[in-house]
Amino acid sequence: MTTLNTQIRSLIQSFRDNLPDELNTLLEQGAGEISALDIVERALKVGDKVTNFDLPKYGGGNGTLTDYLAKGPLVITFYRGVWCPYCNLQLKEYNERLAEITDRGATLVAVTPEKPGALELLREGGASDQLLEGAVTGVKFDVLHDAENSVAEQFGLMFELPESHRIALAQFGVRVEELTGDGGFTFADPATYIVGRDGVIAYAFVPNNYRKRAEVDAITAALDALSVES
Question: What does the DSSP 8-state code read for residue 156?
Answer without folding.
Answer: T
